[in-house]
Amino acid sequence: MFYLVSIGNFLYVIIFLLGVSLGSFLNAWVWRTRENFRITSGRSMCPACRRQLCWYENIPIISFLVLKGKCRTCKNQIPKHFIFVEAVTPLILMLTVWSNLHVLELNPLHFTRDVVFAILLIIIFVYDFLYQEILSEIVWFGALTGLFFNFYLDYTLTSLLLGAIFAGGFFLLQYVISRGRWIGGGDVRFGFMMGLWLGWPVVVAALVISYIIGAVTSLAAIATKRKHLSSATPFGTYLSLGTIICVLWGNEIVRWYMGFLR
Ligand SMILES: [Zn+2]
């Protein structure tokens, strides 16, 4: 018994370390995509003075804490999202592993799919939060990979197409009515991708959950008088959260809700 627990813990320690490194890589990727660097060009650098970092300034989470979030030489603040992504990526990966081991019956293809979806959602979340833009190349790539994975998993084409038409159409309608003032084209593409990832009816749950998270955040912002928090938070971040919840627990949520109706 003790043996099994240790093996399980060891697995999560490995996943944590992989997740921290992945988070660090995603930070670099997002920043370099924004700054139009090539990801292969050179080593990590300070975002302010662009000095190349030495190894001990480049240890995820730890370096940020030791250097108190500042560059060692130019003393500029390192943006807080760097440590946020380094800390949250391993947590999401651990949840993905946990959900695939305990909620579902373990299926390597399903597990790979969930890891890919999680990584794409972290990129979309961070990029949209920082720059108010949902990267369309990530969404198109996501839509195609999702379709590929789900084709080999037990999804029907009808469920996927219905989901894509429903969620994509839902945002397209708002886009057309408001002439692009309420939401952007990025949200329409995101809705389309959500449908291909989750299928009908789980995509409906993901939309509802995204709106609930958005409403709760706005209320919290009003209550704490930090209005800028809700008005500046783009909708793609809420959609990413609603989507990851439903990638991991969508079927359970729908089943739970259906139990209420009966
Ligand atoms: Zn610097």
SSE topology sketch:
Blueprint (H helix, E strand, L loop, with lengths): L1 H34 L26 H5 L14 H22 L5 H24 L4 H17 L4 H21 L7 H14 L3 H22 L3 H5 L3 H27 L1
Helix pairs in contact: 1-3, 3-4, 4-5, 4-10, 5-7, 6-7, 6-8, 7-10, 8-10
The structure holds zinc ion.
The site of zinc ion (ZN) has 8 residues, from loops.
List keywords for this structure.
262 residues; Prepilin_IV_endopep_pep; mainly alpha
Share of helix, binned: over 70%
Query: Which stretches of 5+ consecutive residues score pLDDT under 50?
Result: none
Extended strand count: 0
Bound molecules: zinc ion
Note the main sheet: none
Mean pLDDT: 88
Beta-strand residue percentage:
under 5%
Number of domains: 2
User: So what's the overall shape?
Assistant: globular
Given helix and strand content, the structural type is: mainly alpha
Query: Could you give the order of the helices and strands?
Result: HHHHHHHHHH
The Cα radius of gyration reads 20 Å
Helix count, DSSP H or I runs of 4 or more residues: 10
Termini separation: 40 Å
